[in-house]
Design a protein that fits this description.
alpha/beta, 20 helices, globular
């Protein structure tokens, strides 16, 4: 994906050699653990050319200040003048009613004035774009880079340069925690926010009804994955990683009152119903969820160049970039001149075997099990691309195909989660190429900016329990209407103002990009989590050996004809004797010929 793997230095000579390779960052190379792409920044916005960057800190020229030297007296006065227009305060929630013994005066004294976030969420002033976002000036030593996973810094830099920046915390709607949430610095960073950056975190927690702190996360499983990385830091009994003592309610991923609103790549709100046991693979021991996305608080956002399914403008070995391939596919006319064959397309990894301990991805496997052997009669194109035989059987390995070409012609395209629980962003290439997304994710899985994008007008949602009825679902769906509706929404899937518009011409795909969509979402208060109907909806079982009886019980015996063998640990049976771990039969055929 355009990223370089980590390499360990054992000898002094190896250490010096690796240091020499990373020396393009000079004294700031401490910010990255591995050599990232050259886009890794030394300082926020590279100090905008208004100062000198050293050790991650901008030493600003006279007349400029801020994390990126982006604030001046003229800018601060313009913002203050615009906010002088009278606004109508919205009454704050009664803290005592929420069970918090703190008075309204205490909240105001804590730093949220008449226009503060706790008191006036939702209020607006003429000429003042909302939300008003205060960006914490996190110390440089707590802003270690994520290297190639750079979206937290890039989005944070966009906020710093935007009209949504609020220099006065007492007038802020939201508080932005700048930088990457690395596992080695995130707890010290949050400690700094809570105890050294002002009273705003504690005031928000005391109010008890909303989250006012925002953090961008590039990890595959969002804030939950960061929490996984903290197990060694928060080992029981002193650290209480499972939060059994409720001391981490303000930051634990599963906590309904979590103060952090996570901007993350994964939108699975996989909380189990209250009358069901917790999952086998929770975010921590006994937790009710693994990804723990909280709709109304968290925001599922698109990826960035260099990760799966986000179009990149670079490629290795002089190959065409994904943006060039999209341009060559004439994506601007993707809603016309289609063969609409295959009627439904999917190519990707399907792990038909479970090796630890019985877990699988239902959004992929149920579809594959139901329709792979009956694909021709329905004009479905289904290609399984996994080649590691601990995950698939030898007879299931297939040669890779040109997915761009088939996506460009297909009528609809399957959009599952990642191959084993990670994020699934296939709706981006599908919509960019005019293919109607068919989301086979569970009903509790939310898509990009779901609060401002009406996905039911652009895509179909067929969770695993409905996948056995896919032909009838497709037959009754207004596919051409869905395809046409998506034409003006495609730019919202790209960070065009940050990374460029890829293949889209000016004005094509709508006017708003992903950053505009994010700001539109954040105008609404970030509310604490409550279960809804989607969390009670029928869902596939967590363990693979329970899947096939579940499918039979739901009237889909034709989906259970595959190879099934489980050991005493509920894992799929092992490799056939003599088989290699990685299996690519087409390469062996080429060698023979």
């Amino acid at each position: 994906a355009g990223m370089e793997g980590a390499r360990a230095a054992v000898t002094d000579a190896q250490s010096r050699a690796l240091d020499a390779e990373a020396d393009w960052l000079g004294e700031d190379r401490w910010r990255v653990s591995t050599r990232g792409r050259p886009r890794t920044k030394q300082c926020p916005n590279e100090c905008l050319g208004r100062g000198a960057c050293a050790l991650g800190f901008c030493h600003c020229d006279r007349g400029w200040w801020g994390l990126d030297c982006g604030m001046s007296l003229a800018r601060a006065q313009a913002i203050a003048a615009a906010q002088a227009v009278p606004i109508t305060p919205v009454a704050a929630p009664d803290p005592s009613a929420a069970g918090v013994g703190v008075s309204r005066a205490a909240v105001t004294d804590a730093g949220f004035g008449v226009r503060g976030a706790v008191v006036t969420d939702g209020a607006s002033a003429a000429g003042v774009p909302r939300p008003r976002i205060f960006v914490y000036e996190v110390p440089a030593m707590l802003r270690r880079s994520c290297g190639p996973w750079r979206s937290p810094e890039d989005i944070g830099d966009a906020v710093l340069s935007s009209p949504f920046l609020e220099p006065s915390p007492s007038r802020a709607d939201l508080f932005w925690i700048y930088g990457c949430p690395n596992g080695d610095v995130i707890l010290p960073k949050l400690f700094w926010v809570k105890h050294a950056a002002g009273p705003f975190w504690n005031a928000s927690v005391a109010a008890g009804t909303r989250a006012h702190h925002v953090i961008a996360i590039p990890h595959e499983e969002g804030w939950a994955e960061v929490w996984h990385l903290l197990r060694a830091w928060l080992a029981y009994p002193n650290g209480d990683h499972p939060n059994t003592q409720r001391q981490w309610d303000d930051i634990h991923p599963a906590s309904p009152s979590r103060q952090l609103a996570a901007l993350q790549l994964h939108g699975s709100s996989d909380y189990t119903p209250a009358d069901k046991p917790p999952p086998q693979r929770g975010v921590s021991l006994g937790a009710r969820c693994r990804i723990c996305f909280q709709p109304g608080k968290d925001v599922m956002i698109p990826g960035f160049p260099g990760i799966m399914d986000y179009p990149s403008d670079f490629a290795h070995n002089h190959r065409a970039t994904q943006c060039e391939l999209l341009a060559a596919a004439h994506a601007q006319t993707a809603h016309v001149q289609r063969t609409n064959s295959p009627k439904l397309f999917f190519a990707g990894v399907v792990q038909t075997k479970s090796h630890g301990p019985g877990l699988y991805e239902a959004s992929r496997l149920v579809f594959y099990s139901c329709w792979k052997n009956r694909s021709k009669e329905h004009d479905f194109s289904i290609t399984q691309t996994e080649v590691v035989l601990i995950s698939v059987n030898p007879w299931e390995v297939e040669k890779p195909i040109d997915s761009f070409a088939l996506t460009r012609q297909a009528s609809a395209c399957v959009v599952p989660e990642g191959k084993i629980g990670s994020y699934g962003h296939r709706s981006t290439p599908a919509l960019l190429l005019g293919c109607v997304p068919v989301l086979t994710k569970e009903m509790y899985s939310f898509n990009f900016f779901h609060e401002v994008i009406n996905w039911s007008s652009l895509a179909l949602h067929a969770p695993p329990v409905s996948v056995p009825r896919l032909p009838s679902i497709l037959a009754s769906a207004p596919l051409e209407q869905l395809r046409a509706a998506a034409v003006g929404m495609r730019r919202r899937l790209l960070w065009a103002s940050i990374y460029g518009a890829c293949h889209l011409a000016p004005g094509e795909g709508g006017d708003a990009d992903a950053f505009d969509s994010l700001m539109q979402v954040l105008r609404s208060p970030r509310v604490h989590f409550r279960r809804s109907a989607v969390h009670a909806a029928e869902r596939a079982p967590e363990m693979l050996d329970e899947l096939y009886p579940w499918l039979k019980a739901h009237g889909a015996p034709e989906c259970t004809q595959g190879y099934q063998c489980f050991d005493g640990h509920r894992r799929t049976c092992g490799l056939p004797p003599g088989m290699p771990i990685v299996y690519k039969p087409w390469e062996r055929l080429q060698e023979k010929t």
